[in-house]
Amino acid sequence: MTIVGISIKALKAKKLSSFLSVLLVAFGMAIITTLILVSHQLTQKLESNAANVDAVVGAKGSPLQLILSSVYFIDFPTGNIPLQNFEEIKRNKMVKKAVPIALGDSYEGYRIVGTEPSFLQLHQLQIAEGKLWSKNFEVVIGADVAKAKNLKLGALIYGSHGLTTGAEVHEEHPYRVVGILSKQNTSADQLVLTPLSSIWGMHHHEEIIEEEQDITSILIQYRSPVSTVLFPKMINEQTSLQAASPAIESARLFSIVGIGFDVLHYFAILIMVIAAVSVFVTLFTSLKERKYDLAVLRILGASKQQLFFMMLIEGVILTFTGALLGLAAGHTLVEILGSLDGASQVLFSGYLFLNDEFYVLWAGIGLGIIAAIIPAIQVYRYDIAKILNN
User: Fold this and answer.
1) How far is CA 130 from the centre of its chain?
2) Beta strands 110-115 and 95-107, pairing class
3) Which of 13, 113, 128, 275 has a Cα-to-Cα distance from 73 of 20 to 30 A?
4) Helices 246-299 and 3-13 meet at what angle, rounded to 10?
5) Where along the chain do its domains lie?
6) What region, left, alpha or beta, does residue 314 occupy, with left being phi > 0 and alpha being psi -120 to 50 degrees?
7) Is the distance from CB of 356 to CB of 36 less than 8 angstroms?
8) What pTM value is reported for the model?
């Protein structure tokens, strides 16, 4: 029998203690894997959603709320502003592109966004099926909306008042699906896009007058880097509006979320250290019962070096098994989190594998080796003659 085979049999003889050691390693590894996957995907989504948006202009209020509602579509707007403000900002020399959006309604949890074709250009969205809208109450839907609700071109959908499910449904004005966006892996996948006039017409059954043409916010793309400093200062000081930076507010948001990630990260490291101690205790306590067996192995021809490596192998088997189970559990948990709410704007996938995970896997194996070093040295120093005499 090989040294590896003997190591496995020795661990099987201590099923409970071996199981607890593996369980601790798996638990710590699962937490670390989950944190790595969630933080990476969250950061990636924050960056991809705001990639081409330099600023957002909207009603006074919380800058973070303005960004969350207009860029990530996961909060309520700070209020509405007159369409006239958009026309004025669009003519500003510091602005390269200005895109209006109007929020207020939703379709079974998915937000209906009134906008212009420039919204698709700004976010580099591609239509996979159908075409862009050409008249009121035509919509282009995101890939996730089409998949979740099994919608095809020509399908009729009904919006409801408000941004949550269960509100009053506008049955008098159905929307017709004329286009489906290709998968973007951004919040656009879960949007229902329609002309601004559809939003205004939905809430005003008679002819729309200019005073009723409100929008929620304006997405801005600067003409030059100098505008980054000058434009927000001008808007915030000289108008009744506010300008917020997605980059700044996203960093602020992630710093808040990051505190919780740090706490869980340290907790996971603590569990891994405890797991290493558990591996050490399992191996060390088993030595007293195995002294005679180890002495017999020496008599049968096993060298001190072979017994030394046998103990190391036992530590590696415990931590490697736990680490693999933890990796699988972490990916499974992330996939479950991503599928809990199909209308969520921040979806996570458990099918993503990152290099950082393998570094953590090697670190876990390293802990197993460290935990097994002292028992291995103890075995190396055994006096076989003395053990057999006793």
Assistant:
1) 31
2) antiparallel
3) 128
4) 100
5) 3-46+259-389, 55-244
6) alpha
7) yes
8) 0.76
